[in-house]
Specification:
This protein is an alpha/beta fold. Helix content is 63%, strand content 9%. It is flat, with a radius of gyration of 28 Å.
């Protein structure tokens, strides 16, 4: 079930999924209208002429194809703009935005509904009752299309903008953080230390996208093993580094079954990988610091977004579901480096950005004890970067006054 849920989430984020689903619903609606007509009374209060319904369907069919193509071209332009202004890693979030997909899916589904309805009326498969049912459904489709058009106007004004992309990354990262707070060690036991066991490397290089913990637990129970997961979701696994350590007797068949519990892919995903969201935020802030864009304001927005996420970052102790599987915790220092280091490196000479960075680290250190030590360490490094980059003594003095909260080494 864990693997199926992961695949279902991946499938729903595909650009073609919702249009295909709405097209199927459109075909099913036509079929239902035809079947319901079989149970209608022979004499109806009024008769619906075939051309009345067909005229409406022809209008829908001729206009919705153009609308759907325009909507798709607009989304593609938004992808290109988001990739250029922020980072290509954020594009899958925009592509998987269900509200935008829903509007496009309504246009495509209504177009297919119109085409099939016209074919049915032309062939003459609908009785008088069938035409009446089809007319009622067509009115509903018209209302749905108009509503989707109005909603699309609001959506298209936001898709592709920097602020929208940052908000999408924050939402995806927060979802991953909440999942991790519920299962900080993927439902297994916390691994303290290096762990012992026979290493099992990945069969090929790739990012760990999903780890099927129930399957690992089942195999460990059946063969009396102790499994230590060395590659959490988001880790780049290679054939020369262990994917896991296994304490116990495991032959080649069992090793292959254990490896099958890990899903490897070419790219990282936001599911169960909050560090990836932090990396993407760091990339957006870093691009804003580049000479070509020169947008310190976006860098400050990224820092503020990271502050909100880090303050809410929790790893609450929960009941262990998989007692034979051990997972290494995420190190706070790595998280701070993911999101802050690009901006701290390339924005070290910009006093406004560095002041906000110091205030952010102070907030994180005070509000989240798990990050307190790492925040102080990173603040000291960032201050040294600023000392090496800033040319005006007054700017440096102002920054040091803001960073007076840093504890000495």
């Amino acid at each position: 079930m864990s693997y199926l849920k992961f695949k279902l989430r991946q499938l729903m984020q595909r650009m073609w999924f919702l249009p295909a689903a709405f097209s199927g619903i459109a075909l099913l609606t036509i079929l239902i209208a035809y079947l319901l007509a079989q149970y209608a009374p022979e004499e109806l209060p009024f008769v619906m002429p075939a051309n009345a319904v067909q005229t409406i369907l022809q209008i829908l069919a001729s206009s919705l194809l153009t609308v759907a193509v325009f909507a798709l071209s607009t989304v593609v332009s938004a992808f290109s703009g988001a990739s250029a202004a922020t980072t290509p890693r954020a594009v899958p979030l925009i592509a998987g935005y269900l509200r935008a997909q829903t509007s496009i899916s309504v246009f495509i589904g209504a177009f297919l509904f119109s085409i099939v309805g016209i074919i049915g009326l032309s062939v003459g498969i609908y009785s008088e009752a069938g035409r009446l049912f089809l007319f009622v459904v067509t009115l509903g489709v018209v209302v749905l299309v108009v509503t989707s058009l109005i909603r699309w106007i609001g959506q298209i004004s936001a898709i592709g903008r920097v602020g929208y992309t940052i908000s999408a990354v924050e939402t995806a990262t927060r979802s991953a953080i909440e999942t991790m707070a519920e299962f900080p060690y993927l439902g297994g036991q916390r691994l303290d230390g290096d762990g012992e066991g026979k290493p099992i490397p990945a069969p090929r290089s790739g990012y760990v996208q999903h780890c099927d913990m129930p399957a690992l637990q089942k195999l460990a129970e059946e063969h009396e093993l102790r499994v230590i997961v060395m590659a959490r979701p988001g880790t780049y696994a290679t054939p020369v580094r262990p994917l896991m350590l296994v304490d116990g007797r495991a032959d080649e068949e069992i090793r292959e079954q254990l490896i099958d519990c890990f899903v490897l892919g070419e790219n990282r995903t936001f599911d169960s990988d909050p560090r990836f969201g932090m990396i993407v935020l760091g990339e957006i802030g870093d691009k804003a610091m580049s000479a070509g864009i020169n947008d310190p304001g976006t860098g400050i927005v990224v820092i503020d977004t990271a502050t909100r996420l880090l303050v809410d970052w929790r790893e609450e102790p929960v009941e262990v579901r998989y007692d034979r599987v051990y997972v290494r915790p995420i190190r706070p220092a790595e998280v701070l480096e993911d999101v802050y280091r690009p901006t701290a490196r390339d924005g070290a000479a910009i006093v406004e950005v560095m002041i906000r960075l110091m205030k952010s680290l102070e907030t994180v250190a005070e509000c989240n004890s798990a990050f307190a030590r790492a925040a102080h360490d990173f603040a000291r490094v960032s201050l040294r970067r600023a000392e090496a980059a800033m040319t005006l003594d007054d700017d440096l003095a102002t920054l040091k006054a803001v960073a007076d909260w840093i504890k000495p080494d």
